[in-house]
Structure formats: C-alpha cells, structure tokens
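Ligand-bound model needed. pantoate.
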Amino acid sequence: MKNMNIIESPSEMQSVCRVLRQKGNTIGFVPTMGFLHEGHLSLVRRAISDSDVVVVSIFVNPTQFGPDEDLNRYPKDFERDLSLLKSEGVDLVFHPKASDMYPKNYATFVYVERITDRLCGSKRPGHFRGVATVVSKLFNIVGPCRSYFGQKDYQQTVMVKKMVKDLHMDVEVVVCPTVREPDGLAISSRNSYLLPEERSAATVLIKALRAGEAAILGFNGKSEASSTTVTSVMRSVLDSEPMAEVEYVEAADPDTLDQLKEIQSSTSKSTTLLALAVRIGKTRLIDNLLVKI
Ligand code: PAF
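Prediction:
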C-alpha cells in the first residue's frame, strides 16, 4: 500500500500541491466533512481513475451550519476515515483546524445569488454561503484540475458549478451518481442519526421520488404534465409515513432550480429535477432524482 500523507496546515498543503503541479501532476480533489461512506468512496475511486494525485479534505466546516443545526454532534471517526482512504490509495489528506481556516477577524465570504435561495437554501439561511466559501478556499489551497461532488447534494453541485464559472476558477466540477442502500435510501453521514424505526421510515424519500418519476413518465407522449400533479403524488406518499415531516417537495428546473409549472416533453428542457427534504424524527434528510422525458 502506498504512503498517504496527512497535512493540517493550509499553507503547507498549498505548497505541497504547488510542487506536485509543477512536476506535471494532475490533482483530483474530493472535499468531505469526514465520517466517510460508500458515497464518498465512489468519488474517491473516480478521482483516482482520472488523476495522477488524489487529495481528500476532511473538515467539518462551521460556516455552513446554522445556529440550531448539528455542528457539534456531526458524526466523526477520523481514524476509520484514514484507513478507508489509505486502502483506496489516496495520496494526501487535508485535515485543517477550524482556527486555521477561519482565524480571528476572518472576513471574506462567497455568495452565489438566486440558485441558493431555492430548495434547501430557503430553509437553511447561510448554508450555501458557508459551502461556497469553504469550497473556494479549498480550491485555492489544493489547486485541483478536477473536483468531485455527489448528486445527492444536487443544489450544492449546481451552486459550485455556477461559482466556478462566474469566478473563472480553473477546475472541472465532476458530479457522480448518488449511492444508495439496497432499499434505495441515499447514503449520507446523517443516516447514522436514525434510530432503527426511523431508518425503515426513511425509505419513504426514495418511494416518493419514484412515484413522482412514474407520474412524469406516465405523461410521456403527451405534451405536458402539471408539476402540481407530480408533487401531489410525491406528497401523498410522504404523508403515508407518520414519522415523515415534509420540509419541501418540488419539481424544479435542473439548471436554475426554479419551481416548474409544467413538465414539458415537447421542449428542449426535457429533464426535471424532483427534490425533497424530509425530517424523520430529529434527522433532516434530502434526496433527488433527475427525470428525463
Ligand atoms: O458536501 C459536503 O460534505 C460539504 O458541503 C463540503 C462540499 C465538503 C463543503 O464543506
């Protein structure tokens, strides 16, 4: 097994990556908040197949958590994370301290307009500003050719792509498919919060999305379906689960994230984003499907 270096200092990480690039290496980068699972590992494997050197960051970014959110109880298992990354063949792990990423008097934030007001953004004020800020900082430290994100956090992927384009960042954003448990639950570090009864109730998310997908595809051949019909189908599946408390359920434009009125099969926009956020007990879960007609 090859050597894997763990670096804590942002400036050391920056100079190590600079030297790697000067030597002609391409860097693939997977930003994470740790407590790694198969979803993260799928990104790592893709990065390894694409790049000369693979960097993974493990940093629970305080600026993307609201005051009433789970920053202090976010799950952690650093030693397990390291052994998983080492067995995948990762080269470098960046594990900065919050006080080095956000020293006293830190003042600079990145804010992507509009896209971040919708869906999760409307329920988690400041969340995407925190994500955009930390991802920009990580890109500046690592200087990757490509960076890998999971489709499960769909709004995050759209925001990062927009930020990269608008700020002329020299990095390709690669979005990889959501990894699911055999029963369809999207894999997430937050699934570890679920009690056994809640874990079985959580399958309602994918059931609702699949019902929405079937409703859209059922309209195929006709020119359009009402998005209200589709979201009502999803909502009635969610309502059938007593433990599920719906935060939002939407049919949206996959690029702008604007809520759709009609789901059209006869126009160029033939892909619909079905997205939802649901609380099961105290745990907030999100999931989405892209439906092509
Ligand atoms: O998706 C995540 O885990 C986080 O939002 C990210 C991209 C690592 C930024 O903290």
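The first helix runs from residue 10 to 22.
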